[in-house]
Amino acid sequence: MSSSEDSDNEVLSGGEEEKVQNAESNEEEEETSLTANSTDKTFADLGLIDVLVESCASVGWKKPSKIQEESIPVALQGRDVIGLAETGSGKTGAFALPILHALLENPQKLFALVLTPTRELAFQISEQFEALGASIKVKCCVVVGGVDMVSQSIMLAKKPHIVVATPGRLVDHLENTKGFSLKQLKYLVMDEADRILNLDFEVEVTKILRCIPAERRTMLFSATMTKKVAKLQRASLQDPVKVEVSSKYQTVDKLKQYYLFIPLKYKEMYLVHILNELAGNSFMIFSSTCSGTVKLALVLRSLGFTAIPLNGQMSQNKRLASLNKFKAKSRSILIATDVASRGLDIPHVDIVVNFDIPTHSKDYIHRVGRTARAGRAGRAVTFVTQYDVELYQRIEHLLGKKLPIYPVEESEVLLLSERVMEANRMAKIELKEMEEKRKSGKKRRKTDIEDAEESMGIIDRISGGKNSKKPGGNNKRQPGKKMKRR
Questions:
Q1: Other beta carbons less than 10 A from residue 97's beta carbon
Q2: Rounded Cα distance, 17 and 228, in Å
Q3: What gap in Å lies between CA 384 and CA 48, rounded to an integer?
Q4: In the chain, what are the domains?
Q5: 71, 80, 207, 432: which has the fewest C-beta neighbours closer than 10 Å?
Q6: What's 450's DSSP letter?
């Protein structure tokens, strides 16, 4: 192992965390800081070859966004890049286009690796690479958990140009898949870099850094900068150029943000009132727990809304099915945990509702960034109960402004109390029935909630684990146990 790789490990694992401001000021000599000024440049002006300019037009990208305009020319010069921009500003294009440009100049298998924190984001990035590289026949491979490792090994054996992966599963392949190596890698990208490290992937990232060559180009992209990202940048980047299009944590100008201060017991009523009042829009509702997404979906379904859950306890196929139904607009309400708060680009989301306030203030920036993307308008409403005041004040402090109250007539909301209470009661009964049927060993009736989003995985987890032994309804002799002779 080289000394530079040893230092990677030391910087990632040891030493006190410094403040980001100090880290940045220490590195001012190494870094060139760029400020984004909006101009009327085209993709051709950025130095991209004609094939990629045509690809941008074919996917509907007319002009580069601020982050693309600033970072693409720097990346084409072969420099390492740190990209900081608000969510929804086109960060994927900012690293995908320079990689495809370099790939055309020097064609090679296993050319670039993109690390992402969530599976859904990995599939989305892969789709964008394939769309932009369709004319040059770019091969992409997605390596994430929840999918069979053998089929992934077969895809990796074919040596695709781009590997998009979550860190945990990639380490599994590096350690266990024979013949798979990233020794010839030319580009490493970490998208949502702060989230990768917040999810405690530090050990995996260290292992990956050891398995890839030191002579490579590295790009870090995120909407929020943390102490851990500052440490990572010192560990893995060489003389980086910092492209910063938003100096503080901010949301896009076209996003209108509101809050509602309400009692905890009335949260569902206020949600139903907003859904009725703004009917016809597409909603993304964030809940803090997996079981919360299922219960809320059952409540809204019984009230006639087309709601669909998405969370980390669902199987990968069901997660993708939920997401695709929402993207195809066959469902107008997606109820999700923070697994859907990062990077997912669903253009038609009109309103984001924080049903449960995020524990980490920076997650708020990412949640509300699911709407008002790529120049569109959008709204975000955050529910604040009597127990959430401190968390909400932190969010306002982070944003540096006070949010207006969402206008609601309380008397109109309270008219819904009977219907919502009944729907709540029905949802609890339905969850209980599912649990009892699972325990009794009977084949579960498909409920309203279980069309393709099936949420079976979640329901099983709520009721004590998918693979737990059923206590009754099954007279088969357990293997290894002898029957008593009478």
A1: 27
A2: 7
A3: 47
A4: 3-244 (3.40.50.300), 255-462 (3.40.50.300)
A5: 432
A6: -
